[in-house]
Amino acid sequence: MPRFLLHSVSYAGFWGQAFLSVDDFIRKAAELGYDGVMLMAKRPHLSVLDYGPAERQALRSQLEKAKLKHVVLAGYTNLTADLEHGEIPHREIQTQYMIELARLAHDIGASAVRVFTGYDNPAADYGKQWKLIVDTLRETAARYAEFGVTLGVQNHHDMCAGYETMNDLIRTVNHPSCRAMFDAWAPALHGDDIEKAARLLAPVTVHTTVADYQLRPRFRYNAPLVNYEKQTPFVQAVPMGEGFIDYKAFFRGLKKGGFDGTVAYEMCSQLADGGELATLDRYARRFLESVKK
Predict the structure, then answer these.
(1) pLDDT in tens, 230-285
(2) Please, are residues 285 and 233 in contact by the beta-carbon 8 Å criterion?
(3) Most exposed among 123, 167, 221, 273, judged by the fewest C-beta atoms under 10 Å?
(4) In DSSP terms, which residues pair with 112 in a beta bridge?
């Protein structure tokens, strides 16, 4: 049976949403009936700059008191950043950030840390960027093993957004501490068979993050032609079960592939019904009701 987590980014005050502190968010997740939390590892939530030994111990105690037994940290990386300036050791900087997240995860009782790969950078060719990502993840995974924490790679940024490429990446890194945190929304937007994608990635996936969306058509007015030009649709977050992503097929594929990890719900963009606290709570409850069916 999957364990259901609530992602704190949902209550971080972005995109017009209501803001809750980490402490208030933990109380909220427990109140709503979640099994655990996914904590945003940056300000205004869980920054390594703000959480020293005393703060980490207090946070761990609060999580235990709230009976939130499953905790994942959400790191924010771009491993291909600023390749235009080779004298800046960005790989070392981001590797150190990821190692500090492993230390933080260990201290508060979290099992895994989510990271991203990188945005496609025109300053380097694809092969160079691929090697940079593989080498960085392999080195970082070895450090994670020392803490007993899993390094999870989400199919979010440009590099390895495709599900076959994500599978290739995990196989190429080839370290037991590096696993996928494979989500449905990217392959759904790509037009892929998400049950097939989920079944392929399931054996190496330890966590998935869920949100549902509808596509809103966009148009630009062309005055000389007295007509409209079609633009890339806007992706609008809606309550679970009201969007275009076939989560029944996605979870069916994960199950067939042997997935037995955690599932987090996030409200990581503008919501169709606004960002009031009551709306966030309603969406969070709707997720649990939907997936438990």
Answers:
(1) 999 999 999 999 999 999 999 999 999 999 999 999 999 999 999 999 999 999 99
(2) no
(3) 221
(4) 72, 150
